[in-house]
Amino acid sequence: MNSTLSSASLHTRSLDRKTLLRHRQNMQLQPSDREWVRVDLHRGSIHVHDKLTSPSYPRPVLCTIDTTAEAAGDTSPTLYVQLHGDAVRRLGQDERPLQIQNDFLFKLGFKDPWRVQEEGMNTEIGSLLRFYAGKKPLRVQLSGTYNVRKGKLLLPVNRWTRRQVILCGTCLIVSSVKDSSTGKMHILPLIGGKVEEVKKHSHSLSFSSAGPQSQTYYVSFDSFTEHLRWHRHAAKMVSQRINSVDLSCCSLEQLPPNLFYSQDLTHLNLKHNFLPTDHRLQQLQSLNLSNNQLGQFPMAICDISTLTEVNLSCNYLTNVDQAVGSMTNLQTFLLDGNCLSELPSELGSLQRLGYLGLSFNQFTHVPQVLERLTSMERLCMAGNSLDTLVLQSFRLLRFKHVDLRLNKIRVVVPDEPDLLRHVTQLDVRDNGLEELDASLFPHLEVLHCERNHIVTLKAKGSMLKAVYAQNNDLQELDVSPVPSNLTYMDISRNRMEAVPEWLCEIKKLEVLDLSHNLVTELPARLLCSSSLRKLSAGHNQLQKLPERVERPLLEVLDVQHNQLAELPCNLFLKSDSLRCLNASANKLEHLPPSSLSEESNSILQELYLTNNRLTDKCVSLLTGHTHLRVLHMAYNYLHTFPASKMAKLEELEEVDLSGNRLKTVPTTIMNCRRMHTLIAHSNTIEVFPEVMQLMEMKCVDLSCNELSEISLPEILPPKLQELDLSGNPRLNLDHKTLEQLNKDAFNYFVCLCTCSCTVIFLLSILSPPCCGPAVWSHGYTEASGVKNKLCVAALSVNSFGGSREALYGVFDGDRNVEVPYLLQCTMNDVLAEELHKTKSEEDYMTNTFLVMQRKLGTAGQKLGGSAALCHIRHDPTDPGGCFTLTAANVGKCQAILCRDGKPLPLSLLHNVGLEEEYRRIRQHNAIITEDNKVNGVTDSTRIMGYSFLYPAVIPRPYVCTVTLTPQDEFFILGSRGLWDAVSPSEAVEAVRNVPDGLAAAKKLCTLAQGYGCTDSLCAVVVQLSVSEDCCCCRDHTQPPPSPVLGGYPSSGGSSIKERPTGDGSLPVPLSSCSEISSEISTSEMSSEVGSTASSDEPPQSSELPARGCCALHPACLTGSFQRQLSSATFSSALSDNGLDSEDEEPIAGVFSNGSRVEVEADIHCLRVEASLSSSGRERLLAPPPPPPPCTPEPLEEGVELTLGEADREEGWSVGCGRPGDDGKAMGKRRGNGSVAPQEKSHNLIEVAADAPSKKGGGYFTAPAQPDPDDQFIIPPELVEEVKEIMKQHQQKQQKTPSPDQPADY
């Protein structure tokens, strides 16, 4: 029953799209095969790739749990398995491939066996787990037959001869072609030699050895490609200073035979292979065998007497053999990440051993044999099982550095201090200590005790240089005598109420962090220190700072989140070195002067004063800081910013004046030639500033103001990345401005309304009125970090699945852009499918994240990102039920709910600090580095992507479901940077009284930036309005048509089959279309980079049943209109030519430029009865009545189709599709939510003529009369298509009159 593909098609290297899709479909399991599999949970399917195939299409192989690799291999005797695109391992003949696949999926997070069975039948699993029939060839050496000449080219004796040439290890091997393995070989050592191009001969290289008796071989290659490959590898080889070979991650089961000809080889890296040791390499000094799944101690290394460094980490070793005592030259021995609980006594004979890595094993005490290792200076036993630290065992140890982090130490048994003088560094972080007396180590220099529960800390100060004690319950700090050598002290996030006075006496202290404590007053002489360069005292209870300031060397002062009403009057006068001051979130009403005369010595460059009480009087005091580059004064009481004051700040680069009461931006901002960021949202600005003439400008945010028009120069700034004009209800843009933006500006991000796109202007004019109660509304914003790289993305679907549902998400890629964008474009479609596979909130949300892991494809193998998702739904089967909110998260993106004005957490941070997570990752022998990151990559143990860290890091989310009540006001989703800077309680308090979701989201990001966040930021604020009976239906009169484009409704979608039951399969819901807030082309994702639709079975169309205004009152809408998809697809730097990946060629006309913007309008609009409720941004779906008759006149080529006055009074529409489609768009659902057929996705133009009447509100003001600039232009190449569509539409209407046609039609 195996599905196969002909070998001819497998070897086809160049396929058109249709052929490629057909071949992919042939690779799917046939319906009969699926039925056979689903009969029994012990059955399944694996997908086997042919090693000779390029590209490698998998062929499904049906098997059972008991099928062995030998039987599943079919014609090939050997099967190989590959995880997350990494090493390829040979399966033993008795191993069971289906069992391996099922175990992988269970560890990934799936729970249900039937779902594991379904996932195993999906071909996209290949990016996570893949089987090969035969091993793919690996390049561990270069070889070939070429023309070779020895010696100098000028000598006539030497001739070109055909020879076998091999580049392997550290040497070049030249031999006869016939007797390449048995005949004479010429070996040329290359370390320290030369490789050069031969100019007189094409595609030739000269290889020369080092030393006075060097030899030279000339090799002529057959092509430039081979010449380039050999040159690159050989150049890397000759540039090495040591004789080393790196064969890590090569899936080797044995060493290449030619490697043994490298007699000078001293350093060999065999990490992450499947190799045993080989004693033939007798000259080795360094050998890395980590991650080779050895299982037993390799005895062969004991025969290599020259070894000085051996790495056997992460090999599941349970013991160290006694023969290790013969390795007398050993200096470094790494045994981290194994299962060791004891060491042999013979290890004590290694007197030269200076470093022994024993971290992350199973030791319960310090091995006694270590007392005999007199050369060792470091004790590395992090991540073991020590629960009591007996200092008496350190008497005979001569360790200077003791690393005991991540153990279970709760008790320290003291000993005589005189016997512990040799310890200079102590690391006991991440244990369970409640008290620590470090004074027992009299010569201690560095102390690490973070993340314990320490209340009292004692230390000897005579030699102390650095103290790291953050994240404890510290109330008392006793250090004596005064640590005169102390340079760094971090006691943040504790419960300190007072700062020790002796800190002022330290002459070398450079960094002091007191943030997040309960400090009410700083020492009087602290700002007189002659050494202190950085002082962090934020998040305390300070009411004032010391008045005494005497020429300190202070460069950075952070006093945010206190209760300061003023700053010291001479702070700027005496602080000559101050470069950065952050005094945000205080009660400041005025600022100290910068100088007493016109001249100023201030070198202040960054000033953060966000969220204070500053007024216009403070602006004049800023002019003395002439070197100011960054100025944040958001959310103060500013009414004006005088132009004369701005003119003196010529070096300004970044200004944030948001949340004030400004009406204008000073015109003298043009003097700031270095200005690249202007943020002034949430003011009352009426005039657009002339900042577009500044050539360095990158970001302009003037959202949520009172702008009525904008004026742009002919040439926009070349570095412009973002222009945000959303939330300006009076803004009226003419088409000339729109054309200019679309002509020049789509290499940056333009936001003219909440849907974040200029082209939305046209769609908002053509959109039907919003019908439906406003149960929720939202706003979101994104901001790039200091590197101007937007690594976050937001997802917002106000009407999800065509019912009373909504979906919101935030994604953070930390430093990568790819993963957030893939999550943003795909996750809503995955959730839509999962909703019809299971009804349990935890299951469908969990499976959404797990399925999304494979849809990330190859991008998710080495990259990762955090994600938070919130889904609002109403159970239509429960008439008395309420709305529920289901939240899920992985990584550091979080969601909180405001209930009665208090934050209710909906998320959980998964890290090694959680006992359950720590035990899980330790079961898989993962290494946790000193910065608490798994294998040094991420500090989150559950996160999207990073599949190469499986099974220690998995994408299984934390899921929380709450029932929404009238006390629930709103919820917030935020990225990592937001929650690092703003606490949940502050976030709730900050936006609770902000009526607009967009303004609330803007405020959160502005506050985070004002508090010092330099990372990418993303915030989504969803405001709720839930009534007592969970019904939000209310009688409304018909409001005037709103030009504001609301949330996207669902489009016609595909369906997949659920697990066969007696009732058959369930149809999949209509897929949702999200408001894509970042520029990216999302039309198609291959199986390697996440397809949004099911890849195993063809989609099936399904009609959505009629729904009412809410689930409790389905009849409140009498069936008046149906709205299809309105979407915009944006391309970005991720796309080579800016085209959607499903489009064969560009189409001129609709908003096209070099970066390519594709606009698809598929809008059906019919008149709504006046008695129907209509508000907010929701679109309610009902069976569509036939459109009114229309008799358009024939259009000539190039004719402009205008929405005239008569059209506004009498509705009409232009249909699309084939006769008999009944207005339904058929075809595969695309990545951007479109359901248009792929071949004609650009040939559909459906125009709804109910343009909004002119009114004062809304984002735009629609013209009362047809204006030449407001005409909808049909591209010339589409005129004939439109004529035919309109003709078919007219004929159809004449044949099928509607019995329910409204009287006014």
From TrEMBL:
<feature type="region of interest" description="Disordered">
    <location>
        <begin position="1283"/>
        <end position="1305"/>
    </location>
</feature>
<dbReference type="InterPro" id="IPR003591">
    <property type="entry name" value="Leu-rich_rpt_typical-subtyp"/>
</dbReference>
<keyword id="KW-0677">Repeat</keyword>
<dbReference type="InterPro" id="IPR001932">
    <property type="entry name" value="PPM-type_phosphatase-like_dom"/>
</dbReference>
<feature type="compositionally biased region" description="Polar residues">
    <location>
        <begin position="1089"/>
        <end position="1103"/>
    </location>
</feature>
<keyword id="KW-0472">Membrane</keyword>
<dbReference type="Pfam" id="PF00481">
    <property type="entry name" value="PP2C"/>
</dbReference>
<keyword id="KW-0963">Cytoplasm</keyword>
<dbReference type="InterPro" id="IPR032675">
    <property type="entry name" value="LRR_dom_sf"/>
</dbReference>
<dbReference type="Pfam" id="PF00560">
    <property type="entry name" value="LRR_1"/>
</dbReference>
<feature type="region of interest" description="Disordered">
    <location>
        <begin position="1084"/>
        <end position="1104"/>
    </location>
</feature>
<keyword id="KW-0539">Nucleus</keyword>
<keyword id="KW-0479">Metal-binding</keyword>
<feature type="domain" description="PPM-type phosphatase">
    <location>
        <begin position="777"/>
        <end position="1024"/>
    </location>
</feature>
<dbReference type="InterPro" id="IPR055071">
    <property type="entry name" value="RA_PHLPP-like"/>
</dbReference>
<dbReference type="Pfam" id="PF13855">
    <property type="entry name" value="LRR_8"/>
</dbReference>
<keyword id="KW-0464">Manganese</keyword>
<dbReference type="GO" id="GO:0016020">
    <property type="term" value="C:membrane"/>
</dbReference>
<keyword id="KW-0433">Leucine-rich repeat</keyword>
<dbReference type="InterPro" id="IPR001611">
    <property type="entry name" value="Leu-rich_rpt"/>
</dbReference>
<feature type="compositionally biased region" description="Pro residues">
    <location>
        <begin position="1182"/>
        <end position="1192"/>
    </location>
</feature>
<dbReference type="InterPro" id="IPR036457">
    <property type="entry name" value="PPM-type-like_dom_sf"/>
</dbReference>
<feature type="region of interest" description="Disordered">
    <location>
        <begin position="1174"/>
        <end position="1242"/>
    </location>
</feature>
<protein>
    <recommendedName>
        <fullName>protein-serine/threonine phosphatase</fullName>
        <ecNumber>3.1.3.16</ecNumber>
    </recommendedName>
</protein>
<dbReference type="GO" id="GO:0005634">
    <property type="term" value="C:nucleus"/>
</dbReference>
<keyword id="KW-0378">Hydrolase</keyword>
<dbReference type="Pfam" id="PF23010">
    <property type="entry name" value="RA_3"/>
</dbReference>
<dbReference type="InterPro" id="IPR050216">
    <property type="entry name" value="LRR_domain-containing"/>
</dbReference>
<keyword id="KW-0597">Phosphoprotein</keyword>
<dbReference type="GO" id="GO:0004722">
    <property type="term" value="F:protein serine/threonine phosphatase activity"/>
</dbReference>
<dbReference type="GO" id="GO:0046872">
    <property type="term" value="F:metal ion binding"/>
</dbReference>
<dbReference type="GO" id="GO:0005737">
    <property type="term" value="C:cytoplasm"/>
</dbReference>
<keyword id="KW-0904">Protein phosphatase</keyword>
<feature type="region of interest" description="Disordered">
    <location>
        <begin position="1043"/>
        <end position="1069"/>
    </location>
</feature>
